[in-house]
Fold each of these.
Amino acid sequence: MKMDVTKIDHFMKVLKPKEIVSELDKYIIGQDQAKRSVAIALRNRWRRQQVPPDLRDEIAPKNIIMIGPTGVGKTEIARRLARLAKSPFLKIEATKFTEVGYVGRDVESMIRDLTELATNMAKKEAQEEVKTKARELAEERLLDILLPKKREEIREEEKGDREKVLEVVKADKTEIDSTRDKLRRLLRGGKLDSRYVELETANRNMPMIEVFSNAGIEEMEFNIKEVFGNMFPTKKKKRRVKIPEAMEVIIQEESQKLIDMEKVIEDAIRMTEQNGIIFLDELDKVAGSESRHGPDVSREGVQRDLLPIVEGSTVATKYGMVKTDHILFIAAGAFNVSKPSDLLPELQGRFPIRVELSSLSQEDFVRILTEPKNALITQYRALLYTEGVELEFEESAIDEIARIASDVNERMENIGARRLHTVMEKLLDEISFDAPDMKEKKVDIDRHYVSEKLKDIFEDENLSRYIL
């Protein structure tokens, strides 16, 4: 079977499932089954691009429901996955939506938001491609500001002296070119960085018009700008800025002129349709659990509105029509009150992969504090090092922090790894406040230090409920 290799490599870094899991392991502790599931789902996208075109459109994405308490890594897994794939990624809470006909956001707005994100990504990528050319043009514009061109005054001279004047102008031009080259060398060498220049930038302010419409505020805003944009003159605003900032502003302006926006939009729509990932959090909150009052019509209405989007439909955006057939949906929820089976049967069928994430143990907390690339201990050490303060955490101190966080989670609400943030903030509160004025710049944190700082709060349950 001959594989049809498309331009998917341009948008997606193709990784093997083991490599994806290995990358996720750098940032997320545990939850191996969830990592395996998302790695397979991501790899299946690449596999789909390799099958014959007639079969390609028939292969639906394997959407995932992640079930587990808050703070165990559901959002982080989806976010890191999107970064690996260089995909447009949108996190949205299902509770933000209302049924069509009610005031609030309709479910189609998440596709419009995702397309907007993809457009920004594609635009940024296109600007990177033309950055060298844009820099050259920006440099010329900046030199024009630094060394304004002289007007030729040939018309003011007598006709009989024309040749003589031309020679003078030619000599002046050579001198100007020489000065321009000197300025160019100084500019490139950073010798003019402290100098200010006056820039003139466009400043078009649109009047604020609020319109309520089923099409969505963002669509209406775009249409108003499209129709009435030319009626309002473009005003020029003068700014006095240093040369490095002026260079960046002009590079942005020049790159905007160089890129082909039609191609950018075309690429963005393709990125959205083929690579888009939507993380639908708090899905359990719209699950219609049975009660004596009967089903919640609004919740079921949101599910009914979600169904065609997840199944595959076409949504109108300001950049064009976007098909949702192959967008990957990763849903998540605690499902401690309701169950996945409380969702509409049709919606359940569109999430074939179910993954249960486990609660975090004290040992997991120790690993979260130390192992990931963005470990909390690493973050706090880097933050305080900016004040010249060196933090040293003993192993016993890390164990104690993990124990306290785990115990507080058991006694009160279990908010998972987020509890570590509250404990660490309280623990380092005094150091963070006094850091700029501290004479002793090296601080050793041991088990005794942790116990002393958190003893009163931890022992007083009412106090810990508010503070931790």
Amino acid sequence: MIQKTKLAVVAVSGGMDSCVTAAIANKDFRLALVHINYGQRTEKRELKAFNDIADFFDVEKRIIVDFNHLSRIGGSSLTDKGIEVSKADLNNKNIPSSYVPFRNANIITSCVSYAEVIGAESIYIGAVYEDSSGYPDCRPEFFEAFEKVIETGTKPETHISIVTPIIHKSKPEIIKLGIDLGAPLHLTWSCYQNEDEACGICDSCALRLRGFQKVGIEDPIKYKLRPGYL
């Protein structure tokens, strides 16, 4: 077995995309995982998924960062219970209520700080361009711009790249890749509003369910409802 000497930081929400991204990074790097609590509705369930995924990959280097200021700022149905989580509309081209303002920038800053301290040369993020019509911080140009910020704002000897290996993949392609890599998709959590059984009707559940339905296999997590999204 080839000894992996290089270290990569991976932002892991506990969702399917970040899990597959961790599996990709795991092929070539030793992993250090970062998870963000930001007052989201499913914070406890996502944290469990994060730790389950970290245990699966036998990762010792893992940190949990509390960004509760995002819930105090509000403006998102994920952090403000006064804003209803919208039912799935996969044809919507507007920014959805689930958008957490500038969340990915907050996530990356924590990853950069950690990467510089532990000597990691890469930060892996499971962003998907398919989501970018709703989430402006999921676009490739956002990450390209942030990479320049990292180069400018870290020590001269620090060189950290942002890697977005699934950014141009569809959900079915991500699922197939996860299966091929042996990623623990059964340990992940994507629902925006429930922590016991996934609702099946929020945008995140719908994208995930449609992906599995297009692949032709059943999603291994529990749902209250499993509508058809093909």
Amino acid sequence: MNFKVGDKVVVISGSSKGKEGKITKVFKDENKVIVEGAHIIKKHKKGNGQESGGILEIEAPIHASNVMLIDPKTKKRTRVGYTTDEKTNKKIRIAKKSGEKLD
């Protein structure tokens, strides 16, 4: 999966299409992410002795194919590429549109 917690992404399909936000959680085995402010659902919670019940609005997971990273240079959506750093020989993520290093 190309996404990490803290990445700025835009939703490209679904009910929250066009919304931007940061990734707050990544589910690698399910290939899903949670984006703050996107895909808000209502959850009914029953109250108990300590907490009151009610209808909560929470962010639900979105499939990773429905979000794209935002390029830090052009501020538009972009695909993710990989290259190796010459100094450390480590794999790094780059934005395909501008070639800018992500992270």
